Q: What sequence folds into this?
């Protein structure tokens, strides 16, 4: 599968992205979509449509600061999930942001609900299988414990937090907190 990334500013495709955004993420993890759109106006946020032959496959919302880019939101449309679109999209993102540190947050796999644990573990394995590696710390993202990954490049907590401060301001970054060191990679 060959996925193309297209930055979207308005129109029907932005409406599709917004609809997927609203259904794919829990309320506790979402920023107001208007804040994301405004951030794109500054050049610090990119709203990307994932497409194959002009068919909408999903979304990637990126926040940038210096040589760092946060995959803030990533979702594949239900009807194409499980057919390689996610892996192809990650490869396209690696190419687009070549030379930059790509940071990803995932919900912690320290979870007691078996169904939720299975989903979180599958998500973590997906990113690891696609060449991302664990960063050595956990964070609290608006009340949700998150594990951190990168494209193999180190990114200390302070530099990660600076992405939020730069792209969205302290109103957002003040709600993110360091929780502590993660286990070594061979303990995961």
A:
């Amino acid at each position: 599968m060959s996925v193309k990334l297209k930055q979207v500013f308005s129109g029907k495709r932005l409406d599709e992205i917004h609809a997927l955004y609203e259904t794919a993420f829990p309320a506790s993890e979402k920023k107001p979509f208007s804040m994301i759109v405004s951030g794109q106006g500054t050049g610090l946020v990119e709203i990307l449509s994932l497409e194959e032959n002009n068919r909408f496959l999903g979304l990637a919302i990126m926040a940038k600061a210096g040589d760092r880019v946060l995959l803030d939101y990533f979702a594949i449309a239900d009807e194409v999930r499980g057919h390689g679109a996610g892996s192809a999209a990650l490869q396209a993102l690696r190419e687009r942001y070549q030379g930059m540190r790509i940071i990803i947050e995932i919900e912690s796999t320290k979870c007691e609900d078996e169904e939720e644990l299975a989903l979180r573990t599958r998500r973590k394995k997906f990113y690891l299988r696609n060449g991302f590696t664990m960063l050595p710390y956990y964070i609290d993202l608006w009340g949700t414990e998150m594990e951190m990954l990168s494209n193999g490049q180190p990114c200390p907590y302070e530099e990660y937090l600076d992405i939020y401060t730069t792209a969205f301001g302290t109103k957002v970054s003040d709600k993110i907190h360091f929780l502590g060191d993660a286990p070594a990679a061979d303990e995961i």
User: Anything to note?
Assistant: The chain is about 35% helix and 30% strand. The first strand starts at residue 4 and ends at 7.
